[in-house]
Amino acid sequence: MAPRGRPRTFDRHTALHTAMELFWRRGYEGVSVSMLTETLGITPTSLYAAFGSKERLFDEAIELYDAPGSTPTDQALTRHQTREVVEAILRNNADAYTDPATPPGCMIVLSAINLGSGHDDIGRKLNERRRRDRAKIQARIERGIADGDLPGNLDAAVAASYVQTVLHGLSIQAHDGCTREHAHAIVGAAMDGWDTMIERAT
Predict the structure, then answer these.
(1) Which ranges in the chain belong to alpha helices (H)?
(2) Residues 110, 102: contact at Cβ < 8 Å?
(3) Could you tell me which of 10, 87, 122, 124 has the fewest CB atoms within 10 Å of its CB?
């Protein structure tokens, strides 16, 4: 008796990684189901059987991209001095955004650009991840204030938003073809701004 069903002819993890890079380059709306099936070399039936839907595939791709503890920001948060943390966040991400081995920029930032109506749930999920990242940075800045590493008058929420704003700008710059050297020059200027903010809060 022939086995029932058609066995999968693709590796799910490899397919997920390929889909992640496709979403990363083109955004959620820029990727169609037909584009996914053509790139992955599978049928729509196999795609839905493996991942459920395009949205659920995107959710898994974001989870793969933003795995806890593996992001440049998470790695930078382990530094000792707060200024070192902030600079490492910016420089680590600048390296990641301009790495020629991966699509340019930040997948979470770029996927949200020009997200049309009808995809409110996708937008909310991406927004929540950005809020979560900002909260991590703010918590580390608050710790620096508590430890006396930063002045007590520093507004931690504003400082964290400053860092995240620079990150988002770097992502757009990388998407537009910014080189690693230029990205690091931007980080240098941003750190000058950080130092000025700290001085004013002293």
Answers:
(1) 12-26, 33-40, 44-51, 54-65, 72-76, 82-97, 107-112, 120-146, 156-175, 180-201
(2) no
(3) 124
Q: How confident is the model at residue 10 (pLDDT cuts 50, 70, 90)?
A: low
Are 93 and 164 contained in the same domain? yes
Assess if residue 4 is contained within a domain.
Answer: no
pLDDT in tens, 80-121: 999 999 999 999 999 999 999 999 999 999 988 767 777 889
The pTM score is 0.90
What amino acid is encoded at 130 in this protein?
R
Q: Which residues contact 58 (CB under 8 A, 6 or more apart)?
A: 19, 23, 28, 111, 122
Instruction: Identify the domain containing residue 189 by its residue range.
Output: 67-201
- Count of structural domains within the chain: 2
CB atoms within 10 A of CB 122: 20
Predicted local confidence at residue 56, as pLDDT: 96
Q: How far, in Å, CA of 104 to CA of 98, rounded?
A: 6
